[in-house]
Protein 1
Amino acid sequence: MEATGAEIVVRCLAEEGVEFVFGYPGGAVLNIYDEIFKQNKFKHVLVRHEQAAVHAADAYARSTGRVGVALVTSGPGVTNAVTGIATAYMDSIPIVVVTGQVPTPAIGLDAFQEVDTVGITRPCVKHNFLVKDVKDLAVTMKKAFIIAATGRPGPVVVDVPKDVTAHLTEFVYPATVEMRSYNPVVKGHSGQLKRAVQMLLEAKRPVVYAGGGVVLGDASEQLVELTRLLGFPITNTLMGLGGYPATDRQNLGMLGMHGTYEANMAMQHCDVLLAVGARFDDRVIGNPAHFAREQRRIIHVDVDPSSISKRVRVDVPIVGDVQNVLTEMLSLLKQAKEKPDAAALNSWWTQIELWRSRNCLNYNRNSPIIKPQYVVEKLWEVTRGDAYITSDVGQHQMWAAQYYKFDKPRRWINSGGLGTMGVGLPYAMGVQLAHPDAQVACITGESSIQMCIQELSTCRQYRIPIKIVTLNNRYMGMVRQWQEFFYGSRYAESYMDSLPDFVKLAEAYGHVGMRIDKPEDVEAALKEAFSPALKERLVFMDFQTDQTENVFPMVGAGKGLSEMILAEEL
Amino acid sequence: MRHIISLLMENEAGALSRVAGLFSARAYNIESLTVAPTEDATMSRMTIVTTGSEDVIEQITKQLNKLVDVIKVMDLTEGSHIERELMLVKVKAVGPGREEMKRTADIFRGRIIDVTDSTYTIELTGTGSKLDAFLEAIDPAFIIETVRTGASGIGRGERSLKV
């Protein structure tokens, strides 16, 4: 039976089992919206700004492992979506963004609401398509879903001109599509795997360094088994938090610019490093030359060959799906006659415990002003460590990463690569919709939250009962921190003047607002927010926190990983 | 070091800009880039001449392979290969210089493919350095315009780039 392009788009989404489409209508996508109106296979969530549509779809994907979907109109719909797309791209999140386009005869004529969508999004997508013929539409949608979800995942944009959504063709949704130019490697090279296992067994001072690839590749279970079998210390990147339980003794916590003392010292001084689904980025290893000063052998497992030996030369590269490679590694380890060097490991752990005893995440717990770290710790307690936590970008993000101990993967949802302020609220929406019964909290700051604050309206419309934990220090805290350290305390434009009354603002949107000024009220406020009485309500908690608090430890930009500033040194 | 990278890609709108965009976004050098469909019209073959350290060249080939439209990538300079470039040069050909210009073109195995009473248009093929040498051999004052294709390359013997 023949179908219009618009029907085809909608039916493809239904065939893919899409639950939610986050979007905003406009001229170029009216045919598609008309078809959405007529169907009941998936739910459309109307956001208040296209950026939030993409963020919400992105968070849906991060928290479920399934492809998130957003739908926006041409022109400004697309340009608004670009921040969301770039955010997903930097963190390798599988989403499909369907964008409207002006009719094909109008393309290139500077038509109303026309932009070169494929051109604008090209540098921040895994791939994109402009569908000029309705006959190509179904197969293109299939390709988009395959490309987004396989290999190193990423966003795919499908740009559909308005006339194509009106044209008719036979609808057949292919079960799969072969692409001769696209064949991601799944299995790791067996010779390299053997070399890697040998190297692990010979290690005297080993470290496992696990990144977001473990979470995205659903390899957490294998990582835990491997790390426990070996008895090695492990550190997670910001994106990898939850990939290995944070409360486990073998976990040294996060590494990098705001990583723990023990994680960074172990990373710098190890003799064998097993990097899994991580990419040695500038916020993780600091200055590459300083990192390379210490001799160590590196095994690097990643699905993306271009992530290997990009910033740091490695000895054993293993390209493949992380779960597949770790499973292979485990079976080789179990077969091996040798065991890890217990004596060497023992003395390595003694050294690590010495580093750990610096207690680098300690802070003043007797402060008369609310310490932001305290709020996060209490949140962890009140939610029994079992919430989904989204964050925005800045100091609060680092405190969330340091003090909320994630024991499960896909619970920590933040913009690691692009560092996009404003993601927190739409992220929480996407997560809560995907997990209606879960506790979802957005840890944010008074600056970040204002970047997508309009989504409070979306939350009201769909009764999305997230809890917003605002660590309000009246500063763009991380900017202020850098200005204090590196710009002689000249706080150029980093103070947030004329803040709204967040309690009234939340109430204006139909939500519950709370303002918390004293440390002794923190726990009660959190308990109330997560109480059954407010289970169905969005609660906006405005915590008035210490204005001068800084994030420690800190590795300054361009500094070596072991050149940390610790809190007590100031 | 100078490398010649050959690649096969889907002959689709926008494929060229994906490659060009990759080079500019990641600040890789492009000395020249040529592209045309192959005998199989669904594919294009591109030859990119670039320079960079071994690490950079490794990243370039990996990043190119990552592009969804790219089918295959080969660094020709890793093995023995042949490289050719075509140049058309329009020169002034008047007075005693007219005969001299023809002789020089002959020495370089150039062909005169267009003639007027005051100009020659000479076609030359060879490696880039041969074309440079020709331009150095003639008086620059005689050059009206030049156009070069950039290098095309192919592996020697059995070495080939195909699907």
Note: Residues 255 and 429 of chain A are 29 Å apart (CA to CA).
Protein 2
Amino acid sequence: MIRFILADLRRLWLGGAVVILLVALATALGVAVTLQERSLRLGSARAADKFDLVVGAPGSETQLILSSIFLQAAPLPLVEGSVLTKLAADPRVSWAAPVGFGDSFAGYPIIGTTTSLISGTTTGFSEGKMFALEGEAVLGAAVDLSIGAEIKPMHGTAETGGHTHAGPAYKVVGKLQPTGTPWDRAILVPIQAVWHVHGLGADHGHHEEHEGEHHDADGHDHSAEGEAHHDDADVHAEGASGHPDTAAHAQEAQQQGQKYAFALGAASSKHVEEDHHGSIDADTPIVETFGASTPGLPAILVKPKTIADAYRLRQEYRSGSTLGVFPGEVLTGLYATLGDAKMVLSAVAAGSQGLVAAALVLVTVIHVGQRRRQIGALRAFGAPRSSVFLIVWLELFLLVALGVGIGFLVGLGAAHVGAQMFTAKSGVILPVGFTREDGRLALILLGFAGVLAAVPALLAYRQSPAQALRA
Amino acid sequence: MLPLKIENLAVTFPGLVAPVLSIGTLEISAGSHVALTGGSGSGKSTLINIIAGLERIRAGKVLWGSQNLADLSEGRRDRWRAENIGLVMQDFHLFPGLSALENILLPARLSRVANAELVKRAHALFETVGLKRPEQHIETMSRGEMQRVAIARALLRKPGVIIADEPTASLDLESGEAVGDLLLSVAADAGSTLIIASHDQRLVERLGRRLSLKSGRIIGDVPTGEIAA
């Protein structure tokens, strides 16, 4: 019987191939959507689970998490430096580290932070060592630079019209092991250095050549709003020096800047001196005790000692001038959105699967019609009806099952490609893989195929051999 | 080896007033060789279908030995036919993609009765019908060869009755004659009852009895004499 089925399928290979292709594509679509959504969820959750609590200034929780954990640079309102001082001294906190961002190099974000954050969130170095001097930098595993490379920070990113800071350059001293998080794509430098690069009061401008342009590129919508919520201080500072005729506006911006801007905290007199050059003192050892003079910060990552401490800290830092957020709770909200998007995609996939199913029914009904004579002959020569049923059913079921199998593989492949593209862009490793849930989907599809295949089989079963032979 | 007895058979098709076949009584003795003749629309094919158990019998009796086909369900009729009737059709109804031998064995295999003995018999029959390459694919054979394969298939399960519907009509003269010879000799060897519907005058004359049909009725029943029952 198997040989007969195979001979039959060989004879009808073209139609069979089309059926397999249709089924495979429809299956792949559904599988890819499911896998991609799941891996996005898992990957982002894994990326976030190293960070227990994020403290920032009141504003968008989502933006705070996206910026501090997923390193999607966006100007954030600043939280006072004293908060870090207080958190670092809190006995419930095992470590608290500032995160400073806004600069980039070769498309990689430059993140200012501390050694405790690096050792607290990574498994160690694959090469080299931790930064110890202000002019040193450590690379995430996915940064395609080597030890000893020189990094000239660019303000913003090239795509958003950023400009290279004139003076400072970091030297790469170490490379971290992969963590599967966006931090793999980051260049980590001492926060102190970031402060020094940007660390000026509103009355000191960067002496950069393209500051006017920068202002135009970055600041115009804020000018329109007359408000500088989410801008950073540099822009306004530059605005002030680059366009004296807009002094009034700049004045206002400065005031806003004092409150929101990135690097506007009070600096030590030494800093102020250096700030004139907008430069770092490459050979200064880093200091990681943050006193009262700590500048304002976009976000502070906190590692509480216990879960209970985490909840208490979040509660305490959710009032007034700070916003304590568990990344998990923000992600949950995002997943809800993701879930909606998945539902739409799944509906599209289900629709296409329905269409394919309908097409299959049509194809098989026509097919059985064309095979009436053959089926009639089989019965006339003594094949029992059960055999005829089995032949027709198996033939179609084999095709569909093969299609489903190929579809799962193609879907897996597509999800892998998608995940790799995503990883390359964001650094978040998306774990693509089948789970028990997919096994259930496969069984449902196969069960459906089984029922579908029974339709023509029953049609074949019903006709009398004499009728079939006359056809 | 089975005798046929038909009583009060009437076959009607929906939409037609007159029955397409109406036979009061007809007996064919076991082992006899009978030709069925008649123009198209005479009811010849219907009679073949009825006595082969391919069509349901709504009125009358069709007895092969003591078995009334009218009493059997469709599934039982299929099984009975597989065991007792060897069918040979004008269009062969062989299955492409399979070898000659596989075609001979296919119905038995699908009925799950093919055992080593039957496979051996298939090989023997293959030689009996005068063919040489059992592994040859069916679509590469000539029409005459195909009909020989079909005859071997019909004989595989030692049927008591061989029914052939225009077995030579789609063959050239020479092959047709050879196929006719073959049918007569295998039926004689096995002692099977042989019923052939045919236009082929030369073939008809070689059978022992000729039944002529017209408009669903038997209008002639004459012995032709060459081979007696």
Note: Chain B has seven helices and ten strands.
Protein 3
Amino acid sequence: MTFIKARNLLKQYRQGAKTINAVDGINLNMNKGEFLAIIGPSGSGKSTLLQLIGGLDRPTKGTIEIDDIEITKISDAKLTTLRRDKMGFIFQNFNLIPTLTAAQNIEAVIAKRSKSDRKKVKEVLKQVGLEERANHLPSLLSGGEQQRVAIARALINEPEIILADEPTGNLDSKTGESIIQILHNLNKRNKKTVILVSHSDYVKKYADQTIEIKDGKIT
Amino acid sequence: MFYLRYLWAELTRRWGKTLTISLGLAMASAIIITIISVSQSLSAAQDKVLNPLQNVGTDIMVSRTVNPEEISTLDDATREEALNDNRITMDFSKLGEPGEQFTNDTLMPGSMLTFASSETEKLDPSLVKMYATGLVLNVVHQEGTIPKLAAEIETGGQRIGFSQTFQMSDADRQAFMNAQQKTMEELRNKGIDPNSEEGQKLMRKSVPNPNSTVSGEIEVPKEVIRQEIGSFSTDVKTENFTLAGVDTSKNDIGLILPDQIVEGRYLEQPGEVVATRAFAQKKNYSLNGTITIGGKEFTLVGIVDPKLYTMSADLYMSLTDAQQLADRDGRVNVLLVKASNADNVKPAGESVAGIFSGVKVTDASETAQQVSGSLVSASSLTDKFIGVTSIIVVLAAFIIVSLLTILSVNKRVREIGTLKAIGWKNHLIIRQIVAENIVIGVIGAVLGIGLALGAIALLNHYDISLSATVAGTDTGFGFARRFLGGEKNDGITTSVQLNVIYTYTVLALGSLIALAASIFAGTLAAIKAAKMKPQEAFRNLE
């Protein structure tokens, strides 16, 4: 059963007089629990594609259906709720709130907070091996630790889809490898649907499906 | 609550930003509070000066002031007083011999004509609650050497002799001869020979031989003729000052009141005077010292700060003393009236005007117009600019704080984008940012009150004083001045201490401005934040 379906996706940006096709006629089918790697050089449009699928941006043309919901047609507010309930994001720059501790960064995602939720925060931190660092500010954590906090944050709402935008881009290869390993485990053990954007070929080995993009088109 | 912890974390961990914006708000708020407080204090000070009558518990002041050009319109009696009082005649010869030292005081009510104090009994008690009388006098004090001002010429003492022969008429001669014949016959009848020696003697006795020649001597009476010399040179110094007789029986109304004594004490018995500080300093008077006026000695018992600027004097004594000095028993020339209530001020004034002729009724609005000086300038300056300045400060505060807030929100582009990406709805983001700014606004308001109180304390510490000049009463000194060359009476200059006071309303207003500016800026920033797209989170900021 197709879980994520993208049809004729077109995303155009205006850059002065020029119109740039960041995503140009991409079709995509993805099943639940699948690991998709989107690979391409920088500026190829892979991040834009991830943003379209994650409902962070709207395509110029084309449709995206997630779990039979056409997300290109629903309101911003509904899209926000959808992101909160179904998706977890992991960014290249970790994007932790600098003034909040590791635990608070994770807590920021929870819609309704209760005691059991706080317990869950501890659980996800444990899952990424950072329960000791719960009360540290991001500035006191290493890059790898920050990204693991970001992963924990992406997991707290138990999303079905995890979208990771070059999560290893700012990490050394060993740490990067461990992050990919975590994502791989989430995919295999927790049956999460994972979409990973990377410019490195080595992630292919973890992926069920790989698409390579150049100039907004699948090559 | 997560939102509160996030708020706390944001404010404390970005304390630099919190402090900068708070201080900006605090400064604006402090400036507004200070400006308004200063302005309010100025107008309070001004009210005090502009309504000098109120300072002495008075609604209206009654005097009989006559301008020189109006003299011809007066009735005879009044005109006579007006003219006499404006004429100073000095007979130096009565003061002593030329070359001797002299002092002389001339006391004149001037063009402020007097009226009998008994006239006050005509005041309508239903309109007048209280009243007090006073006698304001101009004193021309002169001292120096008596000049040689007259030439003395001694005349007379000559002796004049004279002699004159008279011719007898025929009838006289006949009568004489008849008388001789008659006497000779009488003598013969007595047996005396008229030609004898005894007979001749008796003849001369009864019929004296008329002398035809009269002679004598006259002495011209001795006399000293004094001739006035048109101009004379002298070292005579003339000083003018004003002296007021005060109704000491009244403590709530009067030219001066006991509570205006700043040093020493109030007038208690005859023979005492109080002086204004300026006059005491100018004349080097010391407390309990002796002052001689019009040949009488007075003791300076106190220094007074008179509040009735339009009718102020240099020296004050009891009304009785002043009346005696000026030889005006039972006469006064100022009447201060307190109406029975505010509505009766006008009728009371009209009623008083009907009692005395040539009366001049002055109320608060008229005295206000006579005030000028730095206090008035400062006050009108603040009146003019307070609005503009406040608006500029408020606008500047709004702009600066908005810019700072938007700038700080711009720095959080990725943070806000991330929050949106992970599912924060717009209203949550707006709420968060507005809440942050409310707290910053409250901090700014509190700091602002602190700064303002500090600024006000500082202003008060530096004892800023403003002057108010009140045009002096024209008591007809014009004449005297012209003749005697005395100094010009410029009116009284009162120095008013700028005592900045604040009200809770003004503090609240200043705080509200800080809060409003912060909420305004926060809302602008929040709207901007809400417009940010979640994909901002992906933007690589390096």
Note: The CA atoms of residues 77 and 166 of chain A lie 27 Å apart.
